[in-house]
Design brief:
Length: 215
């Protein structure tokens, strides 16, 4: 009996038609003797695509937006996590490559996991702030992007070509005081279980949220 094998489709383009899809890379298990797609098994394992998305807020209240290359439109810094790369490191790298801005990851806003019979997607939306607020965003186009800018939600919505609405959704969320969750909630399997020193959530004005039961 021929065992299913992993088949990778195409060149993994980074210009998806759907605004909430970061990549068109697909994987599926194809049986050599049967022309059909098969579900993954415990033995084959489940291919998982990992992505980091960055919502970076300037002290002036504006958000970092990227004019994507190949006329894909305005979006936020985001991209594929390289093999063996940490999700947070990927967020920092993608922001530097696409927007030309060095950032510090302060927390995360949401972890999104989508699972099918054939593969899975994991997307972490990070919250970041610039290391140096005076550092200008990218102005010279390259293969990563056409440039970047600090924009308010309203200014972003005035752009004619918008690739995705994450800046609108998460910018509005933060502007309304939505909480930012600490990085201590994102760990690797097997890490020690510790009581975090940082608050469970932090609000827009910097005040901590629930810290746990009082003694």
């Amino acid at each position: 009996i021929d065992m299913p094998y992993l088949h990778w489709l195409g060149n993994h383009p980074l210009s998806p038609p759907h605004p909430h899809t970061l990549c068109l890379a697909h994987s599926y298990y194809h049986h050599p003797s049967q022309n059909k797609v098969m579900a993954y098994t415990r033995r084959s394992g489940c291919p998982t695509y990992n992505f980091s998305v960055v919502i970076c807020r300037h002290p002036n209240g504006k958000y970092l937006a990227v004019d994507e290359s190949r006329d894909r439109g305005w979006w936020v810094p985001a991209g594929w996590v390289d093999p063996g790369e940490d999700l947070k490191d990927a967020a920092i790298r993608e922001t530097r490559e696409e927007a030309g801005v060095d950032v510090v990851i302060k927390g995360f806003l949401r972890m999104e996991h989508s699972h099918s019979q054939h593969d899975a997607r994991l997307r972490v939306v990070f919250y970041a702030e610039p290391v140096d607020p005076a550092q200008p965003p990218k102005q010279v186009p390259d293969e990563e992007s056409n440039g970047a800018a600090w924009l308010s939600v309203r200014e972003f919505l005035k752009k004619e070509n918008i690739r995705g609405r994450e800046l609108v959704q998460w910018g509005s969320y933060l502007d309304q005081g939505g909480p930012i969750f600490p990085l201590s909630c994102l760990t690797s399997e097997g890490d020690r279980v510790v009581i975090p020193k940082d608050p469970l959530v932090t609000f827009r004005d910097g005040t901590p949220g629930y810290r746990g039961p009082s003694k």
